[in-house]
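Re-running Pyrroline-5-carboxylate reductase to confirm reproducibility after the cluster update. Everything else is unchanged from the original entry.
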Amino acid sequence: MAVIAVLGAGKIGEALLSGLLHGGRKPGELLFTERYPERAEELTRRYGVRGVDVPEAAKLADVLIVAVKPQDIEPLLDELGPLLRPETLVVSLCAGLPTALYERRLAEGTPVVRVMPNTPMVVGAAMSAISPGRYATPEHLALVEELLACVGSVVRVPESQQDAVTALSGSGPAYFFFLVEAMIDAGILLGLPRNIAEKLIVQSAVGAAKMLAETGEHPVTLREAVTSPAGTTINAIRELENHGVRAALLAAIEAARDRSVELGKAHD
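Result of re-run:
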């Protein structure tokens, strides 16, 4: 089995370690790097996986999963550049960073796969989109799909679509959390206790998502099924349209896409 090292054991890195273990990987097949010793010790106690430094990860791993913040990538690549074997598969979970950046900074021929996951990975329900770099083979893509399937769903997209994916599903959970927060506040405004409002909205969100996933119906069809003539729902939707909620959401996602593009250009 391939030795897999996760570089950066934050929330996403830890969630991936946990998912890989639940998916059948043995602790001895996994490594991680973590800058804070106390955090590294905690993760080793929790999962039985060994924490190492970057040079040791580069030496031992067949697959390096880069899960650091985009602003931390330059010093990491400076460290990895002279160490990494060209046959090592590099999997980037960094928003906005193109495969060309890794290919330029690492050994010639290094296979790179770009991934845009999202935070539901921590509950095993991530949506991840993957794209091959110049040297990544179908076998590399299949391996990355297998690894990420342990923590959610996976789709393949051309790398040219990754900035849009980042804006839509990478940032997507935050939009839902924002909407749920507003709806809970509305419930409180209408006189409901916070705990009741929260339970009502969270379960409604779970149920609505399940209907979308399992019925295969278009969102418009499902919305229209709730929207009876002259009823409460159509009055609410009229107000949403009057306040430009649909247009604001489109503009917000475009802004997120533009920022993802900026992150990549910062490393040109």
